[in-house]
Amino acid sequence: MSWFVAVLVTLFSLPAGPSVYRWPVISPRVVRHFDPPPQPWLAGHRGADLAVDPAAVISSAGPGIVLFAGTIAGRGVVSVAHANGLRTTYEPVTADVEIGDQVAAGDPLGTIEIGHPGCPEPVCLHWGLRRGDVYLDPLALLGLGRVRLLPLEGRQQGR
Fold it and tell me: What is the spatial distance between Cα 83 and Cα 64, in angstroms, rounded to a whole number?
């Protein structure tokens, strides 16, 4: 299965109907959308950047178990495992949770840290979503993800 087909299958298998997921911050403003690379090993933006207040409390987008709460490359990161193999990530965050903590949608994970590289705003939360090794648009959890149609591999235009 090609990388593109795997992304489509995963995207369309996200939970449908009333969502158990919510925004990880109050009054979010998306300032940079999910922009996956054409190949998984290339550069891209594998999440959504949300402009937030400098003292924002970051909450779990859905019910799950904290898989990671610590520092990676000098930035605080929290990762939560959810049903159906989904995993959300939040950075930069000073964690108030520990690995193994069970959280509900809206439970606080920590507070925002200043300085997310590449974000056009002074204070940003990078919110990510994965299923296995496939990165997905976290806005899809809220029914807000953008669908982009790409050409099939090996097909000539007009056929």
Answer: 7
